[in-house]
Amino acid sequence: MKTPNHRQLSLAGSRAFALVLLAVLAGCSGAGTDAPGKNYSGGSTGPELFSIPQQQMSHVQVLTVQPSTLTRTLRLTGAVAYNSFQTTPVITQVSGPVSRMVVVPGQRLRRGEPMLYVASPDFSQLRTNYLKARDASALAHKTYVRSQDLYQHHAIAVKDLEQAESAEVQAAGDLASAEAALKVMGVSDPEALAKAPPSFEVPVLAPIAGEVVEQDVSVGQLLQPGNTQCFMISNTSTVWVLVNVYQKDLPYVRTGDSVTIQTDAYPDVFQGHISYVAASLDPTTRTLQARIQTDNPGEKLKKDMYVTATVQAGTIKDAIAVPDAAVLRDSENQPFVYAELSPNQFGMRSVTLGESQKGQTQITSGLKPGDRVIGDGSLFLQFANSLQR
What we know:
alpha+beta
């Protein structure tokens, strides 16, 4: 035989308490003035009263409402986005068709690693121009040095020395221009390129370190220089969460506030902080966008994933709060509590709810300090009251 566990015993105890309470209430229905019943004060428009026999008062918890200090918690919905400060598109100045792809989405790269190769006639011409300019610059420099020596030995005229100097300057300018043209195409070390075997392919290099999150071209596709986006690279160890803040919550959202982030996909809680609050509202939704930066351990947070961000936004002083068990719902799903109107007599009082935390629910309207309400046991009384109608 299996031994009942704690949860089964607790559930059985709750059912037993409800049955006992209902039985006693039903048994007291014919016991004179102690019987629970309905009462009306002030005619048909007065509040409905629910009487609890004195002997049953020990089964319910009656609390006196007192002001307290609560932590103000804002729950904001939003979506994950790449950290734009560590994300960049890969756009090349090389024209021509893609000849080879050497990376795939999801692959991690270091800065400067090749991502694809382009078959570019322009690159071949630029490489040739560089080699010619390099050799011409070296020759012009040698000529100028030799001219200086000859001039010192009175073997040539001044004009010959000046011509050699001018030729060296022009050759150096042509070499610098050829180097710049190659660097625009992504060749960071033209001298190393000159030592490599001749090739019509030019590599497109990773501009930053990170993960390839998008691939926008394929082999054979013609690239337009400065226009075609080849890839998107992002460092996904940190991400942004973009949330919408309603106008009523604006005074409580500040740059630097700590935030906890949760998603339905994982049980993990991610820690972040508000890094930016927009300067204007969205005219359609009438909300303000706030940006949260968070670490992304394990890179579990993915772009466009829906999340809930919880902001601890100061405290609420002199707040009215009752236990969660005291708040019930009527047939129209409106919240109410059982408030004491006279000794042992309680009425349903509509309330407006605020924050809910650590087993306490804030009441923003409907109760004031000193009011007495039923806490534990209110659900059983609601059931018993419904049976008497």
